[in-house]
């Protein structure tokens, strides 16, 4: 009986069929990037807001004040009496009632100067110039509540983490395309609920669930693509990540055209419902069907692939070799039970954690240069395109291991040099820092491909999902590590990043080269990789 790779070679390793499926699934990268980075625009800080004195709304209505007049009566005396207060997080500790004069409310307090009046912290009495422009103004995430904005992004990353475990396992047990479609449906429904959440608690709950399902769409589409193409064509996984970058570049355009956060949330969530049409356009992974001992279904799909590719399968292809390995419910123990699998798993987990931590840390450290937020965000996304192009140029000629390891080591060295470059040569410091960003972006994209190629079909989706969950952990830790260490010494985070990156690069060089090698079907195949 022929092997799957032999049948795939005759049916076409990257013909019209695979190109169509590839293009369709690439769109998932765009919508996932919307979810990943949307907090930048959903959580924009309001341009202007101030704290309302209790009773001011009623007094303003009685006196016929405009909001500007009410703000002048509320904030201006506060600034005159206490120059250190802006009126955003504090207010005069008074209550305005019907005895207050419309012409001069503060005169009610007689000989007391405004500077002698006590101040009170503001709680839920903020007034915004644009009250529905972002979740910050919608849910009062300002002053003492500002940490809740960070919490919203942490909750999303926790959703990614949960999705990696639960949906990665489900895709290996119940099928790639089923979990992909359910995940797309979940992202769309949860996104709508997030847009109309009545309070911040509901917002967080469904943002978490949107993260769970979002991770399901991203990881599953990636695995489907790599499983239906030949070993020489698996760099298409890198191109999927170029669509992620494309989404990063499109997002500021959506945010610029849509004035409210609810509109932005709907604009980035509703496209997921279109992916449900893939039920009729994208088949189940034939590799996965073989591991579940469904050879007839797999063979039927292979005949369809050959037909669309203008090829013809030989009549003796009546059955395809399937794994003799018993398929059980995958677990972490399956990834560390044998020596080579254990080594690959531990190195890949560290690589995911390190590349994600450094990638997000460098993005936050460089920040977005002051000016037009939308333009700056677009440019920051465009910076990532050369990384993908460099990968496409080198990975099929040189291989996976060397570009992966060297890009990580270069990123570490660049971080170390940047930390000690003087501030009076800003162009040089920025250039070296961008080399570090380019290097870690390359590593961050290659790890997807290498992780997929080092696991057997029976454990691939679960293994990739589990290892990539360390990426989400790195994303959660990155801001805390960056800002806490920067408080000690501004460049200290770069020193830590450089150590982590160099160690990661050395470990990666211990992995086997997978260029041109057929995807392993069983754990035994993985153990025989050299």
TrEMBL record:
One of its GO terms (cellular component) is basolateral plasma membrane. It is a multi-pass membrane protein. One of its GO terms (molecular function) is neurotransmitter transmembrane transporter activity. It is found in: Apical cell membrane; Basolateral cell membrane; Mitochondrion membrane; Nucleus outer membrane. PROSITE patterns: MFS (PS50850), SUGAR_TRANSPORT_1 (PS00216). Residues 110-516 form the Major facilitator superfamily (MFS) profile domain. CDD domains: MFS_SLC22A1_2_3. The chain crosses the membrane at residues 21-42, 154-171, 178-198, 204-225, 237-258, 264-282, 347-368, 374-395, 402-421, 427-450, 462-482, 488-511. GO terms for biological process: dopamine transport; histamine transport; monoatomic ion transport; norepinephrine transport; serotonin transport. PANTHER family: SOLUTE CARRIER FAMILY 22 MEMBER (PTHR24064). This is Solute carrier family 22 member 3. It comes from Centropus unirufus. The gene is Slc22a3.
């Amino acid at each position: 009986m022929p092997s799957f790779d032999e049948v795939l070679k005759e049916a076409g390793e990257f013909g019209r069929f695979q190109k169509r499926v590839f293009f369709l699934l690439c769109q998932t990268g765009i919508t996932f990037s919307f979810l990943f980075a949307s907090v930048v625009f959903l959580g924009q800080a309001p341009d202007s807001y101030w704290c309302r004195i209790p009773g001011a709304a009623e007094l303003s209505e009685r006196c016929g004040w405009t909001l500007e007049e009410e703000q002048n009566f509320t904030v201006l005396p506060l600034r005159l009496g206490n120059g250190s207060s802006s009126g955003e997080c504090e207010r005069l500790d008074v209550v305005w009632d019907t005895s207050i004069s419309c012409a001069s409310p503060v005169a009610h307090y007689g000989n007391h100067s405004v500077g002698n009046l006590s101040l009170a912290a503001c709680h839920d009495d903020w007034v915004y110039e644009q009250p529905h422009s972002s979740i910050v103004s919608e849910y009062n995430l300002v002053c003492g509540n500002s940490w809740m904005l960070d919490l919203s992004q942490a909750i999303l990353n926790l959703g990614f983490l949960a999705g990696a475990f639960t949906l990665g396992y489900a895709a290996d047990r119940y099928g790639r395309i089923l979990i992909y479609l359910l995940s797309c449906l979940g992202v769309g429904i949860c996104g709508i609920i997030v847009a109309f959440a009545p309070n911040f608690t509901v917002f967080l709950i469904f943002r978490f669930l949107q993260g769970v399902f979002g991770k399901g769409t991203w990881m599953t589409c990636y695995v489907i693509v790599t499983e239906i193409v030949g070993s020489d064509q698996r760099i298409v996984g890198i191109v999927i990540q170029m669509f992620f970058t494309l989404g990063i570049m499109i997002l500021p355009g959506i945010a610029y055209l849509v004035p409210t956060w609810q509109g932005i949330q709907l604009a980035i969530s509703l496209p997921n419902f279109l992916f449900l049409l893939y039920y009729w356009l994208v088949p189940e992974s034939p590799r996965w069907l073989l591991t579940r001992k469904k050879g007839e279904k797999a063979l039927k799909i292979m005949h369809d692939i050959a037909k669309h590719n203008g090829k013809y399968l030989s009549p003796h292809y009546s059955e395809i070799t399937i794994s003799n390995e018993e398929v059980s419910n995958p677990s972490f123990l399956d990834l560390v039970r044998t020596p080579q699998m254990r080594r690959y798993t531990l190195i890949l987990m560290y690589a995911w954690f390190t590349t994600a931590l450094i990638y997000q840390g460098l993005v936050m450290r460089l920040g977005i240069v002051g000016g037009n937020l939308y333009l700056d965000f677009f440019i920051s996304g465009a910076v990532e395109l050369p990384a993908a192009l460099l990968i496409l140029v080198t990975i099929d000629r040189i291989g996976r291991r060397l570009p992966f390891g060297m890009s990580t080591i270069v990123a570490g060295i660049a971080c170390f040099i940047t930390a000690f470059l003087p501030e009076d040569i800003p162009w040089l410091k920025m250039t070296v820092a961008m080399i570090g960003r380019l290097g870690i972006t390359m590593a961050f994209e290659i790890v997807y491909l290498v992780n997929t190629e080092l696991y057997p079909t029976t454990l691939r989706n679960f293994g990739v999902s589990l290892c990539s969950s360390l990426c989400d952990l790195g994303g959660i830790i990155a801001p805390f590590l960056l800002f806490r260490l920067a408080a000690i010494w501004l460049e200290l985070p770069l020193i830590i990043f450089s150590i982590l990156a160099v160690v990661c690069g050395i470990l990666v060089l211990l992995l086997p080269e997978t260029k041109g090698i057929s995807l392993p079907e069983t754990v035994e195949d993985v153990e025989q990789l050299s």
